[in-house]
Design goal:
Layout: E1 5-6, H1 18-23, E2 27-32, E3 35-39, E4 45-52, E5 58-65, H2 71-93, H3 98-124, H4 127-142, H5 145-158, H6 161-164, H7 173-181, H8 187-193, H9 197-217, E6 231-232, E7 245-246
Parallel strand pairs: 1-2
Antiparallel strand pairs: 2-3, 3-4, 4-5, 6-7
Helix pairs in contact: 4-5, 4-9, 5-9
Length: 247
Amino acid sequence: MSSKVKTRGAAKLHLLTAREVQAAGRGDHSDGGGLLLRVKTTGAASWVYRYTSPTGQRREMGLGVAFKGSPSQAGQSLTSARDLAHRARETLRQGLDPLAAKSEQRKAAQAAEAAKKADRQREQWTLARCARDYHSRVIDQSRTPKHAAQWISSLENHVPASLWNRPIGEVTAPELLSALSGTRPHERARRHEGNTVPETVRRIRQRLDSVFEDAIFHGRVGMNPPRWPLQIPPPVAGSNSPGAGQW
C-alpha cells in the first residue's frame, strides 16, 4: 500500500467529494482532520481516523467499510465516516483516547447484554425446575427409588403452585412461611403416625434449603429464604396447625 496521503490543506475538513470517493485508487486519501479513505490493492476500501492520543501516541481507529459502488453509496459512506470522525474528535477534546473509550463502551455493552441474558435465564429457572434439576442430579443418584420419589413428591404436594411455578429468585421467605404454616400431612400419614406436621415441615424446609443452596451455587438465585429464622405461628385451638418453633 502506498504511504502517500492525498491532502489539500491540513487545517481543512471535508476535502473529498462523493465522486472522488467512488473513483479513489490504491492508497490513503485525506478528508481532513485525520479522516482517511484507505483503498487496498484488492480494491477494498475503509475509513480510518488517525490521531494523537492524550499520551502523545500516534494511533489509528477503524471507522468501518467505505462503500463506493455508486455516487449515492459513496456519499452516504462519506457522511457517516465524517460523523464518526467528529465524535472521535469530541472525545479527544474531553481528554480521552477514542480507541480506549470505544473499548470501554464495547465492554459495557457486552456486560449489559450478559446481565440481560442472565436475567432471562434466571426467569426460566422456576422453583419447580430448580427442585427437579437438583433432584435428578443429586437425590436420584444417592437415595433409594422410594426415598427419591418421596423427596420430590413432598415438595410437589406441599409447596403451592403459585410458588412452585414462580421464578426461584422471586420466592420470598414470608411466602414460604405462609405456605408451610398451612401444611397438613396426608391422611395415610395421620392414620399411622398421628399428627406429623412438625416433622413434615422440618423435612420440607430441609429440602427447600438444599434446592436454594444449589440454585445459589449455579447463579440462579441470590439468597436462601429457607435459611431465614422465621417463626411458624402457634396452633389454633382445636386445629391441626403446626406448633410454634422455627421451621
